[in-house]
Write a structure and sequence with these properties.
This protein has 104 residues and is mostly helical. The chain is built from 5 helices and no strands. It has a domain at 1-30.
């Protein structure tokens, strides 16, 4: 039963969050500080997600996975070369798969 409560609460919370964004007054959305915040936060969240996935470990220890780090490095190189986002993902996946196939 607690699973259903959590599911319904999450659904209601997501709906209310979406509704709050749509119901926000225009003057609040035009605030320069809020616009800067909305520009920077997704980048920070994506960087945090990448760091967590790249250095995933057990407990308090970090696990250095050579294949993941190689894929991350290949993605960085592709980004520096201004490759399209889809190409960056394909390059990272291919580099990771290649390193895993080599046993690294």
């Amino acid at each position: 039963m607690s699973l259903w409560i959590a599911l319904v609460a999450t659904a209601v919370g997501c709906y209310l969050l979406k509704f709050a964004g749509m119901a926000a007054p225009r003057r609040l959305l035009d605030d320069p500080a809020l616009q800067r915040f909305a520009t920077v936060v997704p980048v920070a969240l994506l960087a945090a997600l990448i760091a967590v996935q790249a250095l995933q470990g057990e407990g308090r220890a970090l696990d250095w996975d050579t294949a993941r780090m190689g894929g991350l490095g290949a993605a960085v190189v592709a980004l520096v070369l201004r490759a399209p986002f889809l190409a960056v993902i394909v390059v990272a996946a291919a580099a990771t798969a290649g390193l895993r196939a080599l046993g690294l």
